[in-house]
Amino acid sequence: MPSSLKDVAARAGVSVKTVSNVVNGYPFISVATRGRVEAAISELNYRPNASARRLRTGRSGLIALSVPEIDAPYFAELASHIVDAAEQRGWTVLIDKTGGERSHEQLAVAGIRSDLIDGAIASPLSITTADITAIKDTHPLVLLGEKLMRCGVDHVAVDSVAAACEVTEHLIESGGTRVAAIGMRAEDDAESTSALRVQGFRKAMTAAGRPVHEHLIATVHGYYRPDGYAAMRRLLALPDPPDAVVCFNDLLALGAIRAIHDARLRVPADVAVTGFDDIEEARFSTPRLTTIAPDKGALAEAAVDLLARQITGLPPETKPQEVLIPYRLVVRQSTLPGADTA
Amino acid sequence: MPSSLKDVAARAGVSVKTVSNVVNGYPFISVATRGRVEAAISELNYRPNASARRLRTGRSGLIALSVPEIDAPYFAELASHIVDAAEQRGWTVLIDKTGGERSHEQLAVAGIRSDLIDGAIASPLSITTADITAIKDTHPLVLLGEKLMRCGVDHVAVDSVAAACEVTEHLIESGGTRVAAIGMRAEDDAESTSALRVQGFRKAMTAAGRPVHEHLIATVHGYYRPDGYAAMRRLLALPDPPDAVVCFNDLLALGAIRAIHDARLRVPADVAVTGFDDIEEARFSTPRLTTIAPDKGALAEAAVDLLARQITGLPPETKPQEVLIPYRLVVRQSTLPGADTA
DNA sequence: TCACGCTTCTGCAACGTTGTAGACGGCGTT
DNA sequence: AACGCCGTCTACAACGTTGCAGAAGCGTGA
């Protein structure tokens, strides 16, 4: 049913190749011919067949975005920005959710669909340096997040150590005496986001002359509301419960707030809470959430930009880039009742 | 770099077609040959080239999911379920966000990428019956949501009228005397989700012998927290503000709650609030949100199933299906302080 | 006049895959 | 012994596209 170059060629009375040339903007075409071909194209509503084009040229105009979960608001918002940025370059985004499983991440990155996509942007959770180095030279790839910063692949991230440090300082300055952290993952290695945020937390505590009580660093398995809820309940059951909590993402923080409310305590009067990511919900929750707001638009722009550079064939001397994305500490009700900024 | 059938064939000492037959499970292959071919396949790490396959067979293993916004939690959760359901059938999902614009929805459905995808699942906002009928016979398509129920395309939806009716009844029974609704969209036609929910709201009010005050039906432009926030502020500024509000999705409800709290009122003591969709946030918000919970898993299953039936070529006598998905009214704190069920 | 170059256009081959048609032996039946 | 059938395998063409090489027509300068 869809028409091909051949159909257009027949209608315009030229060769298939000439139509191809018109479509691809080859300059040496007479005005008359170009006119006839373009007329035929629109009459037949011709659209190039992407599969055939990909088969011939190796380009599909499709890039993959691989994230652990797409229904986590942070990743959903990020995906939205990336789709926008990709669209501006005429690319379509294929979104792949890995569930954070290494095997799935390997596939996403090395590509069970590598024959369909021109490149991938991945936000890895469990994947290892070896997995990456195995494919980095053959498949255009940009990594998001702090994990695997130094394995020779283009990389976009927020400075987690600095951000965690800043938000911890904020809690201390606002009067937190026993500051806890929620979000360490026992299974993560030292490069992981969670490890870096713990590091920033420790740094701020030490700089302020506060002892770090290990039992106030609550571990989680996932990064969802129920994980934050459970962790906060454990913290509240301690003999010396915290009066301030740094959560490593907004969902953990929102779960923690829910647990605090269920314990008939108030936020921030009894426990101050901070998050990470600045998802939209953080601006509408009760109380509104103090959080670290990375510039997601800039993050998406940078990632797509780096990928574009790889796909279009970068000058060989270009080194893998490490892009640091700016962030802001947004202070809201969950740490300072009056300080609403949004 | 990736190996092709030809490489595998050379290595196994058989013809290209035999390798193709092995890959595709053609039965008449001797054990010895199959063994050699499979060995060669794994030694060369052969993967079929999807573009070539698509070119030859017309199948790509790719389906599109077209939603207005991917960072709206409802759509994100839905997308997640659909990706899971599609994965079980070996399909990959390409997620397309339309922003609710008609032109983009047309493209998504009729397919700027129709040459790449085998079919589409779309959740339309602005598209018209004419747009659909124009392409329904040539492109496998399943629609989500109530809009355009009767245009001869497979369709999966929740009974919005019944659900809106049920949640309104619940508010009346729990003591709401002035019940308002948030979520009508002036620009929507009578088939739209918002119109149907208004209809269910009116039905319940009338059945309970309550007058429907038109100024208590607050209109919105979008379905996000800020829209619910603004609408609720308008309602609270009325001389006879409502003491119960039916919101047409959870985000509107969460925005409304935020507005109520900002007005120094309590939920549900001063104003009871209900949502629609049962996004995860509704189970963790303060207060937890009473809402209509559609069975999203069933919805995704049904949609992918119907699409599969179309793609694999349905028996010609099969009529377009209209699938109604079950839902539950989940009562939580936002209408009954003690009634938490989740 | 002829060689040369430029513009415009064309035919052929190839990308990796699968459908069609058929080749080739071996086996059972007549 | 002849026949047909079945299991196994293969050759060829085609899907729609683009790179390559080159043809045809025309003008220019020697």
UniProtKB/TrEMBL annotation, chains A, B:
Stretches assigned to the HTH lacI-type domain: 3-57
UniProt keyword list: DNA-binding, Transcription, Transcription regulation
InterPro entries per UniProt: HTH_LacI, LacI/GalR-like_sensor, Lambda_DNA-bd_dom_sf, Peripla_BP_I
Entry GO MF terms: DNA binding
Protein name per its UniProtKB record: LacI family DNA-binding transcriptional regulator
